[in-house]
Amino acid sequence: MAIIYTYPTKATPNANDLILISDSQDGNKTKQVTIASLPGGSGSGVSSVTSANAAITVADATTTPVLTSVAYSGGTGIGHVPTGGDNTKFLRGDATWVAITDNDTTIDTKNSGSSVANPTTSLDFATGLTATGAPGGVVGINFSGGLNDLSDVSFTATANGSLYVGQISSAPATGASNVTLGGGTGKIMSSGTDNTLIGSDSASLLTVASHNVVIGSDSAAAITEGGDNVLIGSDVAATLTTGTDNVIIGKSANISGAALSSTTVIGESASGAADSTVVGKAASASTNGVAIGSGASASGGGIALGKGAQADANKMAFGSSSSQLSVVSSKTAADEYLTVKINGNVRYIRLYVD
User: Fold this and answer.
1) Which one of 125-134, 137-146, 281-290, 304-313 scores highest in mean pLDDT?
2) Would residue 333 count as lying in a domain?
3) Can you give the pTM of this predicted structure?
4) Distance of alpha carbon 120 from alpha carbon 158, whole angstroms
């Protein structure tokens, strides 16, 4: 029989290749077996190794080779989970186990990837968060995401108590206790205080005015310094700039002068002058006039009551040709009586006909 080393060498054995063995369990008889039938044998080597955490152990009948696994040590390295963990701890990136109760209430806030200076308790909204300077030494936040289920919003003792929601060019420098909701609302306010501005572009030119309530898109579009006004309705008080103590309510309701004060106007497209009182759609009154009713109109000092009533200066007008008040005939054909009810009793005011 030829010597083993004289046989040709096969570079890549196959699982079906045959080898000769002496069978120790059968009197050392010479037998043939395939490579695939050997323990752990295959044509391509070891196919898998299973770890038991502390070490990887591979054993056969004659030897005990040991492959040791490396524990994870932090950073970019890899390895098995190190010992020391339990259900009350978590494994940090530096490969240390930390108790879950060991928490930090300070969360670093990011602005486009950069930390916001001196955060206290804050959240990382990534690129959707922008920090801006604000009164009282408090960092303002412009947020491009949603604020669904927002609750328990409060201010610290050192804050100025103002809330701004919507696109504004700058927050007031010294103003306090302002609430603005809507894009462009109060966008150039400099030091006004105690203003409540709600609606897109409402009071967009307001600067130093205080104690105003402005509600409605494009409402009080020209107001700058006027204070203590209540202005409600879209496009309301379009000409008001510096007037004070006005109550103007209704779509496109307005006053006749930019600086007028103490005027009450209620009704769509209604208009009033200084110290006038106007109630009704498209109603109007001059200085000191009173006009109540749809389309009613009163000149200076006049009083117009009823739909379409038209009062001259310092006179009264009741009703109109299109909306007449009821009168009763008198005992003479030339006179009539206006019916009124006083304390539940009907009375008649005699009217002399010219």
Assistant:
1) 281-290
2) yes
3) 0.55
4) 14
